[in-house]
Amino acid sequence: MKHPVDVHVGKRIRHRRWMVGMTQQQLAEKVGIKFQQIQKYETGMNRVSASRLWDIAESLSVPVAFFFEGMEPSVSDHMVTQSEGGNVPADILADKEALELVRSYYAIPENQRRRLFELARVLSDAA
């Protein structure tokens, strides 16, 4: 049976890998393992050892703590309320469309990105 922490860590590995545009094969090569092992980590089927998590964190340019962010069960099982930031899923990184939007957003030059951000803020206030 999968442990919830292993599943959470695996999701965070997958999300970060996807955010940086890296394939499972590329991550596996950087870490020195087979891509099938990355698949098992990402689904929570296999537990990631501390040293392997360290290597993955370095390969994905994040601190190890990144993989444990958002572990509060009260947040992960519910929607974020309007007062906490809108009616969005608590695990927004689980939404592939949201991840693609974030990646696209950061690909925009900074001055245009700021203008887009302000537009989005105005449109969300109007809704």
From TrEMBL:
<dbReference type="InterPro" id="IPR050807">
    <property type="entry name" value="TransReg_Diox_bact_type"/>
</dbReference>
<feature type="domain" description="HTH cro/C1-type">
    <location>
        <begin position="13"/>
        <end position="67"/>
    </location>
</feature>
<dbReference type="Pfam" id="PF01381">
    <property type="entry name" value="HTH_3"/>
</dbReference>
<dbReference type="GO" id="GO:0003677">
    <property type="term" value="F:DNA binding"/>
</dbReference>
<dbReference type="GO" id="GO:0005829">
    <property type="term" value="C:cytosol"/>
</dbReference>
<keyword id="KW-0238">DNA-binding</keyword>
<dbReference type="InterPro" id="IPR001387">
    <property type="entry name" value="Cro/C1-type_HTH"/>
</dbReference>
<protein>
    <submittedName>
        <fullName>Transcriptional regulator, contains XRE-family HTH domain</fullName>
    </submittedName>
</protein>
<dbReference type="GO" id="GO:0003700">
    <property type="term" value="F:DNA-binding transcription factor activity"/>
</dbReference>
<dbReference type="InterPro" id="IPR010982">
    <property type="entry name" value="Lambda_DNA-bd_dom_sf"/>
</dbReference>
